[in-house]
Structure to design on (335 residues):
């Protein structure tokens, strides 16, 4: 194993230079295949191995877990990430995308050797057993009262995961006469991150300190999902979200932001909302809680069959075999 001092932050140039030098040294070794992930690390890897591709035929694969440039993304994302990806695509033998929108965009604008759409990173449905949790015991441990509807979100406590918009939405439900539906809601957030204090402060300001609970990092997410009345996924940006897939895998009713990736998992538009509009979020919560969600939840669950880990692995093994076979043929022809 070789450690590379990667940084995901563009604002850390010293570390970026150090990691690029480490990659250049690594490129001096004999590799048949190089598979990279995450935009900054992948860009630097492809830059470091570009000569190796030309001279030794090393094949380079990049799995993009959601481009940072997309419809509705900030202009700075387009100005920074798109030009870099456009250039690096020329040094990429296979570009894996994980959702329909990225795949269609890549096919039109990026000149990689081959562009593939994978069903995310895959989910093992055998690990998820609906109705396997002691729902009442979990709710008691979280302080959920008998007359409360439990909302659950899972994700790092950062701006992109957008938990703060759900808290603001619940503030509207509490104060807005036109929005009151008689629901007594308790919002549970699983995750760690730099926004923890801001989320708590916002809940306090809105008078929600007793009905918003941050539980930190948890290893029992499937059980928590089963204890919830509704899983809320408000992210501003995703590729193919694993947290949403896991909630669907245990047949928990879900609502989510109307963004790429999410749209492929939750087809019913009435179960999606504008993540930047707290009023739209709260209206979606109320609308969905008033419905019988068993049928649409079952539809979402059945759809996950196409996103299983074995499908991803089978597709990647096929591409690995094709690439290594082509490389051997090239070496035989050259020799």
């Amino acid at each position: 194993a070789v450690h590379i001092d990667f940084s995901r932050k563009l604002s850390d140039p010293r570390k970026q230079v150090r990691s690029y030098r480490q990659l250049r040294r690594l490129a001096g070794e004999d590799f048949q295949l190089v598979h990279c992930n995450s935009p900054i690390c992948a860009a630097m890897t492809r830059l470091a191995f570009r000569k190796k591709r030309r001279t030794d035929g090393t094949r380079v694969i990049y799995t993009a877990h959601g481009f940072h440039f997309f419809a509705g993304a900030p202009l700075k994302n387009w100005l920074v990430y798109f030009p870099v990806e456009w250039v690096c695509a020329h040094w990429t033998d296979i570009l894996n995308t994980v959702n329909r929108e990225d795949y269609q965009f890549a096919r039109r604008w990026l000149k990689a050797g081959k562009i593939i759409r994978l069903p995310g990173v895959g989910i093992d449905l055998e690990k998820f057993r609906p109705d396997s949790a002691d729902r009442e015991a979990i709710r008691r441990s979280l302080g959920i009262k008998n007359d409360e509807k439990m909302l659950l979100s899972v994700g790092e406590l950062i701006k992109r995961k957008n938990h703060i918009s759900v808290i603001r939405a619940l503030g509207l439900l509490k104060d807005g006469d036109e929005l009151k539906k008689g629901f007594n809601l308790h919002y549970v957030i699983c995750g760690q991150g730099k926004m923890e204090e801001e989320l708590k402060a916002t809940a306090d300001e809105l008078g929600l300190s007793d009905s918003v609970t941050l539980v930190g990092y948890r290893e029992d997410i499937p059980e928590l999902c089963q204890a919830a009345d509704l899983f809320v996924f408000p992210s501003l940006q995703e590729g193919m979200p694993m947290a949403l897939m896991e909630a669907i895998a245990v047949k928990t009713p879900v609502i989510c932001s109307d963004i790429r990736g999410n749209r492929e998992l939750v087809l019913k538009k009435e179960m999606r909302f504008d993540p930047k509009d707290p009023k739209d979020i709260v209206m979606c919560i109320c609308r969905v809680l008033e419905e019988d969600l068993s049928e649409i939840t079952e539809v979402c669950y059945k759809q996950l069959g196409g996103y299983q880990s074995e499908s991803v692995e089978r597709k990647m093994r096929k591409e690995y075999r094709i690439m290594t076979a082509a490389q051997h043929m090239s070496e035989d022809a050259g020799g």
